[in-house]
Amino acid sequence: MELGLIAIGAGLAVGLAAIATGIAQSKIGSAGIGAIAEKEELTGRVILLLAIPETLVILGFAVAAMVILILAP
Asked: How far, rounded to the nearest angstrom, does the alpha carbon of residue 52 sit from its chain's CA centroid?
């Protein structure tokens, strides 16, 4: 029972981080495409801004790994 709850907590850490990243990237991506349509030289900045929210998923994965490694018997 306890191991199952640990696994659910780890899954929530990664899953909720991925959902939040998807929402952030959808808004950044649509605004970025609009900016690129007006000025093509902004392509590099838009790609960089799209990559920044991905760190949220990496942090969620790190939290999940710590939960599993520390709390699992």
From this structure: 9
